[in-house]
Amino acid sequence: ELVEEIGGYIEQDELARCARVCKSWYGAFIPQLYRHVRYDNHSCKMVALWTATQKHSRHMRSLAVIANDFPELALLGPECCHLTTLSLVPLAFVNQQWCSWLRALIDLNPSIHTLYILLNEQLDRMLFHGEHNILKQMSALRNLSVLNDHYPKDRTKSSGVFEAILECGSQLESLTYEVVRSRPIPEAEPMEASLDIVHRQPWTKLVSLNIHDQDGRREIELLSHCPNLWLYKTRVDCRRNGYESLHLLAQNYTSGDPLYRLEHLEIMQMQGPKTAAALDELLQVCAGPSGLKTFYAVDSIASQITIKTLLTYHAKTLETVVMSSAPWPSPGDLHLLLTMCPRLRHLETFVWSEEPKKPWLHDLMKSPWICTDLRILHLITRQKNESPLIEASQVELLSGQEDVLASLQRQFWNRIGALKNLSTLHLNTESRLRIFPTPLSIIPEDIEQLCGLNHLQEFQIPPWQEFMSPAVKEELQLKRPDLQIEYIDEMQLLA
Amino acid sequence: MKVTLESSDGQVFTVDKEVAELSVIIKEMLVIEQANQDHPIPLLNVGAVELAKVIEYCEHHRNDPTIDDDEDYDSRKKPIEMDDWDKQFTIVNKEMMFELILAANSMQVKPLLHLGCRYAADIVKRMSPTEIRDLFQIDDDFTPEEQDKIEWEKQWTKL
Questions:
Q1: pLDDT digit string (tens) for B82-131?
Q2: Which of A424, B12, B28, B31 could form a disulfide with A458 if both were Cys (CB 3.0 to 4.6 A apart)?
Q3: CATH number, span A319-495
Q4: pLDDT value at position A494?
Q5: What CATH number is attached to the domain comprising B25?
Q6: Could you say which of B102, B152, B159 has the minimum Cβ distance to residue A13?
Q7: CB-CB contact of A409 with A440 (8 Å)
Q8: Where are the domains of chain A?
Q9: What pTM was estimated for this model as a whole?
């Protein structure tokens, strides 16, 4: 019993070694070894492994098949009937035979609650069209992830899997729907003209929706059925704005159950004034007793008003904020985040200076940070409107204020030193200009602050000596031999 | 309120009730024997040295929130947060730690059991089967034919 308990802390390949110790250990570790089985291109060629899996398939709870040569699922045998999680990534040709094996496997395992599948056109047709829809067989299914590797050539036709999802949506708790490698939409059509949504009972169980689809109509259709989302993640491709989705989501919350409010919002590649307005509206209506915990906006630009709204309604609850898209937020906004969000644990953003004369550190140091529990901090420095032409003048301006900079640097490192739970610190730069002293360079006096961070495990900085001299590095490594210093690839920086 | 505990070698320890109740076994015993609290609770499988150490652990963790034991199997794969005190606590020799695991198991002190098992897992996962047998004084009871049959399990390690 104890040996089994110990096994819970051991990884798969180590379990296999431990199972060879003696019979009683074998008995204790074998069920754990086969609990999660993953076949990839390498392992599925190993016949011995298949035979072994067959012998122990009653222990299997999750099965992942990620392979070109599809293994014969029938080999798993009738004892493989306790699966709860199935992941399928067929990379090449899949035939009718394999699909019937899969159907048989699903019939044997009514307890499957999680399905992840990468589809191509052929699989879509064989597994999801009309009466053949395998989701109908899966009454326990709660979490569904579909990566759709094709796009119907005829845009008036829906893909089989999308129809299948619409049919089973009411039983789901979480849904991921991505169309990867999609062909571009010929011309953006007006959304209203082609939107003909069949009215359905609301999917009240579905609380997590993650969608990446070039065709916004499918996103709108899914969203219109989900009044109770806690998590919403969307990635918008450049041809459409995506603000319609945010607007619809806001409407859902205005009329929906007040118990359900968004906690996790991730947007990618959303830009433009309409997006900013929709985001502003959403941030206002989804404020409630709970409030947002995660705000993640990558390659998205909203406005300064958005940040103000975010902080007005969600400052007390925010734990994760990722905003990587200069010139947003401004250094002043960053300062607000650090001084208004007491629960902030993960902050990742650009920092830059609007005026070269006034280093952004000024803004950050204006008042004390209250996020004492910060664990992850990524700051990426860059110059605004960077161009080689301003290089010379900037160097000149900065070199005139070395004293001010030095004092700000010491303040910065003191603040960092006070973040006792910090585990990850990345100080990157996207700047092509190697201006030194950079606002963040590390001098011997800062080492004490760094060494005091007992939980710091990941420390990433630019590779240049001006950032941290060899002597400083040596001293740091002497005092914190366990701390790995990673350097950003310079070539990548300059690319 | 105080409770007295007696180790297998007859040593008596007096601790606060709430500290002793981190042990599921003692908690249950206290419920059953509510009237009879003058006698020390005998712990037949736990020696004085280990008991002192278990009590030290329980004293430190007396205010921890209780962990839901019905949690999903896989949540154990996630690293448990060990604070600096726990790290210091596990700096003992292997024999002592294994005795502690047995003590924690017989007294059902769940967080200490998890801590100990994690410690043990860290040790065995770096070892070969032969080294593990030596450490735990286990005999290799596989017949040569059985050895052959489990030979494929070596392949897992290469995946």
A1: 777 887 887 778 788 888 999 999 998 888 888 888 888 888 888 888 88
A2: A424
A3: 3.80.10
A4: 53
A5: 3.30.710.10
A6: B159
A7: yes
A8: 1-33, 319-495
A9: 0.79
